[in-house]
C-alpha cells in the first residue's frame, strides 16, 4: 500500500462501534442497547429490530451483501455461515434488503458437524447462535474493498442451553468474576464501581515462511509442523534475529496486517522479530476479555490471510520446527472497574495496599488450588512440544512475583506480630506502603508460566494456535471462587481490618508453595516443585482428566460457568482432537517417508554405487573410499528408516477403534514414540544425501530464505 494513510481515520472504520451507534441509532434505542451491554439486561424485540435495521443500512454502505453470525466452536477456530440480506422476490421480480431484530439476535446454523462431545445427538443437532452485543459487529471487506460481509459476534449453544463453544463459558465466567469482585470491593468501602471486567492483552507469536517452499513441505501443509527436518548449520544461537531490524518483505506484510486490523478496530500496537529466525510477534493493546478473545481470532486469521497475499505462509503451530524455539502467546490479565480502577494495581495508600494484598493472595490461592486446570487450559497437541522443553515455561504451574513483592509476602508470613498489630486504627502490613511497582522494577522472569508484571498477571503457557478463551475462563472462575470464599469470611467478621489481615496471612502461608522466582527452566526446579507437591503434568492427554474432577465440577457449577455434562463433553472433545491430530501426523509421516524420502534415498544410494563402478572402470587406482563409506552409511540408514516406517504402520493399525481417553493415550504412548523413531534416521539421512535429491526444502531454506 503506497498511499499515505491516516491511522486515526481508518481505525475502526469497519466497526459498528459506540460512535457509530450513537450517531445512527435513535436516542432511546441507543440507551437501551447500552443498558443491555453494561448491565446485561435483556433486549426488547422492538429495539432489536431498530438496531438490526441500522446495522444493515450501515453495512450496506460498506458494501455488505451478507451477514454472518460469527462463532467459536470447540475446534479452536472460528465458524461462519453467510446469509444474504435479500428478501424473497416480489411479484415484479424485485427484492429488498432485509435484516430483522430476530435475525440479529439469534441464528440457527446447521452446525451439526461441530464437535459436541456427546452433548448433542444428531437428531437434535441444531444449535443456535446468540448475539454477544458486548463485542461489536464489524464488516470484513474483500481485498478490492468493494464488497463486504457483516460479522456479528455470537455465542453458540445447544437448544437445551448447553455451551457448544468457547464464548458462552467465557461470558459466564466474566459474570462470575464481576459479581465476586464487586462483593470484595464493597467490603473495602468502594460504593461507586458498578462493574469489574477482566482486561486481556494477548501477545501473539508466529512464523513466516516463503509460500512456494511451504507448498513443497507436505508435512507443513497437512499438519502445520515439520515432521522431518535436520537442524540448519545456523540456528538461533547468535540471538541476532531477536528484536533485529525487520526485513522489507516482512515489514510490508506487517504494514498490511496492521492496516487490516486497525480497520476492524483491533488495536495492533507492537511488532518485532522474535527469538527464532523467521519468527515474529504482534501484540494489540489490551481490551475487555471477550473482545480480546475475538480480536485474537481476527489477528490469527488476518496474519494468515495477509501472508497469503504476500506469497508467504504464516505458521501458527506451537512447534513448526524441531530444535528451534516454538511459538506461544502471553495472556496478560487484570481486573478493571467501570470507573477505571485496576484492582491488580498495588495503589498508593496503605488502604489500597491491603486490598491489593488480599486480591494478590486470593489469586495465588486460586492458582495453587487449580494449577491443574490452568495447565489444562493451555494444553494442545502442539504445545506438548513446548511446555517443559526449556524454551517455554515448564509444564509446572508457579507464580512469579518479583523480589519486592515476594519479600512483602515473606514478611507478612514471618513477622506475624507486625502483621497483626493495629496501630492508631491503621493496619500495619509490615511495610506501611508497598513500593511502587513500576513496570520496569518487576524484573522480567521469562521462565515463569504465571508472572506478576506490575499491575497484571501474564499467563505464558498458552499455545500460539489456541483460542485464549479457555485460559481466561479458568482464570476468571478460579479467582472468582477465591474472592467468594474470602468474602464469605470477611462479610461475617466483627473486626474487618483484623480479619482481612489474618486472611491475607493465611492465604499467603498456605499457598506460598506456588510462588517461585527462580529459573523455571532448570532441572532443580523440577525436583523442588516435586518436593513442594506441585503437579507436573507433561502432556495434553494427561492434563485433560482434571476437567471432570469433583472439585473442578463443583467450582464451575457453583459459579454457573460449566455443568458437569459440559465439562465431560469438553474432555471428550479434547481426547478426540488429540487423537485426530496425531493420526494425521502419523499418516502424513508414513506417506512422506514411503513416497518421497525412501525413493530419494534409493536414488542417492544408486548414484553412489554407479559412481563407484564408473570410477573403478575408469581407473584401477582411483580412490572410491568416500563413496563407499557414504554408500554403507546411507544404505544402513535406509534400512533403519524402512524398519521404523514398518513399525509405525504396525502401531497405527493397532489403534483402538473407539474414540476417547483410551485411544488418546494409545496415540500418546505408542504412536508418538514410533513417529520419533522414524524421524531419527531420516534426519540423519538429510545431512548426508545430495541436497538436489532431497525431496523437500530444508530448515535452512525455510528459515533463512524468506
Ligand atoms: P511485554 O510483556 O512484551 O513487555 P507489555 O507488558 O507492554 O509487553 O504488554 C503486553 C500486553 O499486555 C499488551 O497487549 C498490553 O496491552 C497488555 N497489558 C498491559 N497492561 C495490561 C493490563 N493492566 N491488563 C491486561 N493487559 C495489559
Ligand atoms: Mg509479555
From TrEMBL:
Any one GO molecular function term: glutamine synthetase activity
Gene3D superfamilies found in the cross-reference section: 1.20.120.1560, Glutamine synthetase/guanido kinase, catalytic domain
Domain GS beta-grasp span(s) in chain numbering: 65-161
Any one GO BP annotation for this protein: glutamine biosynthetic process
SUPFAM superfamilies, A to Z: Glutamine synthetase/guanido kinase
Pfam family, one: Gln-synt_C-ter
Domain of life according to the entry: Bacteria
Domain GS catalytic, chain residue ranges per copy: 166-597
Stated family: Belongs to the glutamine synthetase family.
Name this polypeptide is given: Glutamine synthetase type III
Originating species: Coprococcus comes
Amino acid at each position: 500500500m503506497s498511499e499515505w494513510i491516516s491511522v486515526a481515520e481508518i481505525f475502526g472504520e469497519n466497526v459498528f462501534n459506540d460512535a457509530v451507534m450513537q450517531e445512527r441509532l435513535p436516542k432511546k434505542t441507543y440507551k437501551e442497547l447500552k443498558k443491555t451491554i453494561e448491565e446485561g439486561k435483556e433486549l426488547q424485540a422492538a429495539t432489536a429490530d431498530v438496531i438490526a435495521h441500522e446495522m444493515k443500512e450501515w453495512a450496506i454502505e460498506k458494501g455488505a451483501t451478507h451477514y454472518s453470525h460469527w462463532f467459536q466452536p470447540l475446534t479452536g477456530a472460528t465458524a461462519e455461515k453467510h446469509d444474504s440480506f435479500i428478501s424473497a422476490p416480489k411479484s415484479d421480480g424485485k427484492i429488498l434488503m432485509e435484516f430483522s431484530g430476530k435475525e440479529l439476535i439469534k441464528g440457527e446454523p446447521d452446525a451439526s458437524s461441530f464437535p459436541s462431545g456427546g452433548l448433542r445427538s444428531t437428531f437434535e443437532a441444531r444449535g443456535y447462535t446468540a448475539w454477544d452485543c458486548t463485542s461489536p459487529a464489524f464488516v470484513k471487506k474483500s481485498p478490492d474493498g468493494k464488497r463486504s460481509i457483516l460479522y456479528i459476534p455470537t455465542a453458540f449453544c445447544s437448544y437445551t442451553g448447553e455451551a457448544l463453544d468457547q464464548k458462552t463459558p467465557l461470558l459466564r465466567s466474566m459474570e462470575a468474576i464481576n459479581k465476586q469482585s464487586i462483593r470484595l470491593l464493597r467490603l473495602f468501602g468502594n460504593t461507586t464501581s458498578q462493574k469489574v471486567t477482566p482486561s486481556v492483552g494477548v501477545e501473539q507469536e508466529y512464523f513466516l515462511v516463503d509460500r512456494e517452499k511451504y507448498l513443497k513441505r507436505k508435512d507443513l501443509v497437512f499438519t502445520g509442523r515439520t515432521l522431518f527436518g535436520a537442524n540448519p548449520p545456523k540456528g538461533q544461537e547468535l540471538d541476532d534475529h531477536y528484536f533485529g531490524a525487520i526485513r522489507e518483505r516482512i515489514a510490508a506484510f506487517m504494514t498490511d496486517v496492521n492496516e487490516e486490523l486497525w480497520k476492524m478496530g483491533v488495536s495492533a500496537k507492537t511488532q518485532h522479530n522474535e527469538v527464532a529466525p523467521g519468527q515474529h510477534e504482534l501484540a494489540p493493546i489490551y481490551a475487555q476479555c471477550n473482545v480480546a478473545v475475538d480480536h485474537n481470532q481476527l489477528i490469527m486469521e488476518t496474519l494468515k490471510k495477509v501472508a497469503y497475499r504476500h506469497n508467504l505462509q504464516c505458521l501458527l503451530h506451537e512447534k513448526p520446527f524441531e530444535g528451534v524455539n516454538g511459538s506461544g502467546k502471553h495472556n496478560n490479565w487484570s481486573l478493571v472497574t467501570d470507573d477505571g480502577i485496576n484492582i491488580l494495581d498495588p495503589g498508593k495508600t496503605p488502604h489500597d495496599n491491603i486490598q491489593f494484598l488480599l486480591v494478590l493472595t486470593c489469586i495465588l490461592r486460586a492458582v495453587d488450588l487449580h494449577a491443574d486446570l490452568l495447565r489444562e487450559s493451555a494444553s494442545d497437541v502442539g504445545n506438548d512440544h513446548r511446555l517443559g522443553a526449556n524454551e517455554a515455561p515448564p509444564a509446572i504451574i508457579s507464580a512469579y512475583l518479583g523480589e519486592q513483592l515476594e519479600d512483602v509476602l515473606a514478611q507478612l508470613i514471618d513477622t506475624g506480630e507486625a502483621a497483626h498489630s493495629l496501630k492508631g486504627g491503621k493496619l500495619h502490613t509490615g511495610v506501611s506502603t508497598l513500593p511502587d511497582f513500576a513496570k520496569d522494577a518487576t524484573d522480567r522472569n521469562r521462565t515463569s508460566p504465571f508472572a506478576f508484571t506490575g499491575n497484571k498477571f501474564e499467563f505464558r503457557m498458552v499455545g500460539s494456535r489456541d483460542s485464549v478463551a479457555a485460559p481466561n475462563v479458568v482464570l476468571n472462575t478460579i479467582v472468582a471462587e477465591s474472592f467468594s470464599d474470602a468474602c464469605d469470611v470477611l462479610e461475617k467478621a466483627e473486626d474487618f481490618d483484623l480479619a482481612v489481615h489474618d486472611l491475607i496471612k493465611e492465604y499467603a502461608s498456605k499457598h506460598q508453595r506456588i510462588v517461585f522466582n527462580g529459573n523455571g527452566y532448570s532441572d532443580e526446579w523440577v525436583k523442588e516443585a516435586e518436593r513442594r507437591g506441585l503437579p507436573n503434568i507433561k502432556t495434553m492427554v494427561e492434563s485433560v482428566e482434571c476437567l471432570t474432577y469433583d472439585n473442578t465440577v463443583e467450582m464451575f457449577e457453583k459459579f454457573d460457568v460449566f455443568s458437569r455434562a459440559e465439562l465431560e463433553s469438553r474432555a471428550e472433545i479434547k481426547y478426540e482432537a488429540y487423537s485426530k491430530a496425531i493420526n494425521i501426523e502419523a499418516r502424513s509421516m508414513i506417506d512422506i517417508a514411503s513416497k518421497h524420502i525412501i525413493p530419494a534415498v534409493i536414488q542417492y544410494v544408486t548414484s553412489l554405487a554407479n559412481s563407484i563402478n564408473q570410477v573403478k572402470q575408469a581407473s584401477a587406482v582411483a580412490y572410491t573410499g568416500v563413496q563407499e563409506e557414504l554408500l554403507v552409511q546411507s544404505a544402513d540408514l535406509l534400512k533403519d528408516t524402512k524398519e521404523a516406517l514398518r513399525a509405525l504402520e504396525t502401531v497405527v493399525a493397532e489403534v483402538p477403534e473407539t474414540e476417547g481417553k483410551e485411544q488418546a493415550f494409545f496415540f500418546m504412548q505408542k504412536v508418538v514414540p514410533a513417529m520419533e523413531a522414524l524421524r531419527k534416521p531420516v534426519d540423519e539421512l538429510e545431512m548426508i544425501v545430495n541436497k538436489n535429491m532431497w525431496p523437500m526444502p530444508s530448515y535452512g531454506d525455510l528459515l533463512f530464505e524468506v
